[in-house]
Design goal:
Blueprint lengths: L1 H19 L3 H19 L2 H11 L2 H10 L4 H11 L12 H9 L7 H11 L19 H27 L4 H21 L2 H19 L6 H22 L8 H17 L27 E2 L23 H58 L3 H7 L4 H7 L1 H50 L2 E3 L4 H15 L3 E6 L4 E3 H22 L3 H6 L6 E10 L2 E8 L6 H10 L11 H7 L21 H10 L3 E7 L3 E9 L4 E9 L2 E6 L3 E5 L5 E8 L2 E4 L18 E7 L2 E7 H4 L8 H7 L2 E6 L2 E6 L2 E9 L13 E6 L5 E5 L1 H5 L7 H13 L2 E5 L3 H13 L3 E5 L2 H8 L6 E4 L8 H10 L8 E5 L4 H10 L3 E4 L4 H14 L10
Parallel strand pairs: 3-5, 15-17, 21-22, 21-23, 23-24, 24-25
Antiparallel strand pairs: 1-3, 2-4, 5-6, 6-8, 7-8, 9-10, 9-18, 11-16, 12-13, 12-14, 14-15, 16-17, 19-20
Length: 946
């Protein structure tokens, strides 16, 4: 009976469905069929078997009818099926005729369904509301956070897939995977109520679904549209995460995708010319995973999604909780180190006690022998004369002899106890060693909670290169390798600005214009390689371009013009290259949106110094330039070399060290500084092929090893400790450590190399003034503090900075353009500030006009970018206030607003706004207006605040 009920339920659902779509005859047939089913159950024997066999026929009959609704033959076949003798006589003699009449009646489609069909076939259109990124007040925060957390990984995959489609490398598997990701974005965004992401994901899915199901070649223009959609989705998610501004071109991108949806609906896409399409390759059976390389070009290997089983659950943890874990693991590490030290100390004492017990045992044996000799010396005659006992009785009762025997027993017990103590100490050492290993594993896991892949910067860096290319009219592709390397999140954030500067300089200064590259026999499109790699516990970042390289003659001319070097001074290419790291140094005569302000490379050097890193430059004229950055992956734990100088232990981070040489190896000589070059005056001139400059004036020392010479200095006096040996002897017999600095490699003399050790770095606290050359401290097992040296900073004395360099740095600070961004929306303000900071401007923000006025008391900008509608004081009132004051009367003001009506524009111009920019706008448009405002207005440099 249960099977019969299920059978009847399915027939009833079919009847209801056919009724909804206007097939009333088929619905009536289903009802009639349901009416005769109970009679089938009552049949027995052959009649029942015949009826059950007959039941298997009707699905094919219904399918044939659906192919030709209202067809007489198909309708008659359905009616005859119900009138079969196997089902028994019909209740109504006219039942068959009535069914045929109903089945042959034309379908009557409901008006609502007709409207839905018409809407589905009509061209799709969208509005500004369809790109809204507003988060509903009723959103489930847990679901929203989960969506925001998982989106970046999906976006990375989607970007790789759309790049493959645009390059013609995609196969049907790629189309299917891309469609699935777009569908996921649509569904997730609909759940949390983000209409903009849901709409873009939905229409992108529609386009991709067509190319997944049809062997139609995707047009190249579609590939570009999909890449734009991928970028737009990424920026939308970045906006929701608070990392970027909302995409101003979102409606434009959505309209372009919708245009392709309409072409698919109309069939227009099938008639597009062959030269406007790219092939869809068949599925590649060996495409099992994605390329790890992140690049401006799509990877050559096929892309496939990671297995779902590999996905790992994530847990959101507050940052302060992670910081507290860091503090506790640091304390635990210190305590275990002290415990190891105490155990070693106790173990040493136990060994000393065992040795001492052996001595006691020897002395007890000696005493026992003396007592026995003393007893044997007492003869029986002596005993008779004295009236005392005979020797046997004397031996038995003599107190001295008894005490000696007791002492022997006590010494034996003490020796046994010492041996037991030594065994216990051995077990304790094993337990402490195991605990230390567990602590190291725990420390590694805790440290990993703050690690992030460098690939998280890829989208921002790629956009920076693309934007600079648009501004300069050049073509360049950024290829990023090693994106899976993990770096401390704080270090990664501090690394972003230096990388942006370097990539911008690579395009502006290095990559040539397409015509010039073609004339030089190079591809029109330049290439910039950004490689991340590990070197021990440190990270090495290499930025290499295939441009024209450094213009050494121009660098030299600028250095002479700014009195940084003498006209007759001869410098190597390496020394000339390091000049560009000086504050305010620029080879450009004119200030542009990108270069010429005297900031950039000195910012790179400063930011790297802040994360205890170094910068190295090299260039081959006509072949390009290479910049190498070295720094620690984490500022909390560092691998160091412990050295001794002046009876004090110091820790030197390994990433500073190139090599260590024992005392007596190599040659040491004293040199005379003359005209900025080293002039040897020792008896061992050496045959150095590379001579590094010394930061020390007049007389200094030089260390030569393996045909390479380095300036040599003593760490002991640099740290304020007196040297124990005369200088000549110390420089010969003491170990040398080669240190990487911004001025090249230098040799540092130390008293002793102790060991290599990973340490937890602690700051010196906010109450202790910053100590020059010391970046932190670490606590040793015995409780002593060991300073962590910033050796490059320690080697460069502040008094050696020339007046010309100081003046140049001051001029650079004055030349840096300052911009104040005023907007009551935190996300918009943050995104705009990020854009301007990436363009090398000094930027501050304010939430409304009143706050902007307070900021102006201490920050004097060259330009103000303001919104129109804000609380407390709006943009119009702020502009009027600026125009009323003498000091800000001529300050350029750019108003950025969504109000596009003429009356709003007239109000802004009447208030004194210089440029009225309406949304949406592109980043390039905004930067162009910013540059125009700075160029066309005569900006008087404000006096420094008192």
């Amino acid at each position: 009976m249960e099977a019969l009920e299920d059978y009847a339920t399915q027939l009833e659902r079919i009847g209801q469905t056919t009724e909804l779509i206007g097939l009333g005859g088929l619905s009536a047939w289903c009802a009639a069929f349901n009416g005769i089913l109970p009679g089938v159950i009552l049949l027995e024997g052959e009649a029942r078997a015949l009826a059950c066999q007959h039941l298997a026929v009707w699905p094919a009959l219904v399918d044939e009818y659906l192919q030709k609704p209202a067809d007489f033959d198909a309708s008659l076949a359905l009616a005859e099926f119900l009138l079969s003798p196997g089902f028994g006589p019909p209740a109504d003699e006219n039942a068959g005729l009535n069914l045929v009449e109903a089945l042959t009646a034309p379908p009557v489609v409901p008006e609502e369904l007709m409207a839905q069909l018409a809407q589905a076939e009509a061209p799709v259109s969208v509005s500004i509301a369809d790109v809204s990124l507003a988060v509903p007040d009723t959103v489930d925060r847990d679901v929203y956070d989960a969506f925001i957390d998982e989106a970046p990984n999906n976006l990375e995959t989607f970007a790789a897939l759309t790049s493959r489609i645009a390059a013609g490398l995609a196969d049907s598997n790629d189309m299917r995977t891309a469609k699935r990701i777009a569908h996921s974005f649509k569904g997730s965004a609909n759940i949390v109520g983000i209409r903009g992401i849901a709409a873009l994901g939905h229409h992108t899915e529609d386009v991709l679904e067509y190319f997944e199901q049809n062997p139609v070649k995707p047009p190249r223009a579609l590939g570009r549209a999909l890449v734009a959609a991928s970028d737009c989705l990424a920026q939308m998610v970045g906006y929701l995460r608070g990392d970027e501004s909302a995409p101003e071109n979102a409606l434009e991108v959505l309209n372009e995708i919708v245009a392709w949806v309409n072409k698919v609906k109309s069939g227009e896409i099938e008639n597009m010319a062959d030269d406007a399409v790219v092939d869809v390759a068949p599925p590649q059976p060996d495409a099992s995973r994605y390329e790890k390389q992140l690049s401006g070009h799509p990877p050559e290997a096929p892309v496939a999604p990671a297995a779902e089983g590999e996905a790992q659950a994530t847990l959101r943890v507050p940052v302060n909780t992670v910081d507290e874990m860091y503090r506790l693991i640091g304390e635990m590490t210190t305590r275990i180190a002290r415990l190891e030290s105490q155990v070693a100390n106790v173990n040493g004492r136990a060994e000393a006690l065992l040795t001492h017990n052996l001595l006691v045992q020897q002395r007890v044996v000696d005493i026992e022998k003396l007592v026995m000799l003393r007893g044997m010396s007492l003869t029986p005659a002596d005993a008779a004369e004295s009236g005392s006992f005979d020797p046997l009785e004397m031996d038995r009762y003599n107190e001295l002899h008894g005490a000696a025997r007791a002492l022997v027993e006590v010494a034996a017990d003490a020796r046994e106890m010492t041996e037991n103590l030594e065994a216990s100490m051995t077990n304790l050492r094993i337990e402490v060693a195991q605990q230390s290993q567990i602590n190291k594993e725990l420390q590694h896991q805790v440290v990993s909670t703050r690690l992030a892949p460098v690939s998280s910067l890829a989208a921002r860096l790629t956009r920076n290169v693309r934007q600079t290319c648009v501004q300069t009219g050049k073509q360049a592709a950024l290829v990023i390798t090693g994106g899976d390397i993990q770096v401390d999140g704080d270090v990664l954030n501090k690394l972003a600005d230096p990388l942006l500067h370097l990539l911008r300089n690579a395009v502006d200064h290095g990559i040539e214009l397409p015509g010039d590259r073609t004339a030089a026999g190079k591809p029109a499109e330049g290439r910039i390689d950004l490689n991340f790699s590990r070197q021990g516990s440190g990270i090495v970042v290499t930025i290499r371009d295939d441009g024209k390289g450094l213009d050494y003659e121009r660098i030299r001319a600028k250095a002479i013009d700014r009195e940084l070097i003498h006209a007759d001074q001869q410098l190597t290419h390496a020394e000339l290259a390091r000049l560009v790291l000086l504050p305010g140094f620029s080879t450009r005569d004119e200030v542009s949106e990108i270069s010429g302000r005297g900031v950039g490379m000195d910012v790179v050097a400063t930011r790297l110094a802040n994360i205890k890193g170094t910068v190295e430059l090299s260039s081959e004229p006509g072949q390009g330039c290479e910049v190498v950055l070295r720094f620690q992956a984490s500022l909390v734990t560092q691998h160091t070399l412990l050295v001794e100088a002046g009876k004090q232990l110091f820790a030197i981070p390994i990433h500073y060290i190139r090599e260590v040489f024992p005392g007596g190896l190599g040659q040491v000589r004293q040199v005379q500084r003359e005209g900025g070059r080293d002039k040897g005056e020792g008896v061992n001139p050496g045959t150095a092929s590379t001579l590094h400059p010394s930061p020390f004036p007049l007389r200094s020392w030089q260390f030569t090893v393996r045909d390479e010479s380095f300036p040599l200095c003593d760490l002991t006096p640099l740290t304020g400790y007196p040297s124990s040996l005369p200088s000549a002897e110390r420089y010969t017999v003491m170990p040398k450590v080669l240190i990487r600095t911004a001025d090249g490699v230098m040799a540092v003399l130390v008293d002793r190399v102790v060991e290599s050790r990973s340490v937890m770095v602690k700051t010196m606290g906010k109450f202790l003034p910053r100590v020059h050359g010391v970046s932190g401290v670490t606590l040793m097992g015995d409780g002593s503090l060991v300073p962590l040296l910033n050796v490059p900073e320690l080697l460069v004395s502040p008094v050696t900075v020339t007046a010309a360099a100081a003046d140049l740095a001051a001029a650079a600070r004055l030349q840096a353009r300052r911009i104040l961004v005023v907007d009551d929306s935190l996300s918009v303000r943050k995104g705009l500030m990020q854009l301007l900071q990436d363009a090398a401007f000094e930027v501050k923000g304010a939430g409304d006009g009143m706050e902007a006025i307070r900021v102006l008391e201490s920050f004097q900008p060259h330009l103000i970018c303001t919104d129109m509608e804000m609380p407390n004081m709006n943009g119009l009132e702020l502009t009027q206030h600026l125009r009323m004051k003498e000091t800000t009367r001529h300050l350029p003001v750019i108003m950025i607003t969504s109000r596009s009506m003429d009356k709003h524009r007239e109000q802004a111009m009447h208030a004194g706004v210089d440029i009225y920019l309406t949304k949406p706008y592109t980043d390039a448009d905004l930067l162009r207006h910013v540059h125009a405002a700075l160029q066309t207005n005569s900006i008087r440099e404000p006096a420094a605040a008192g």
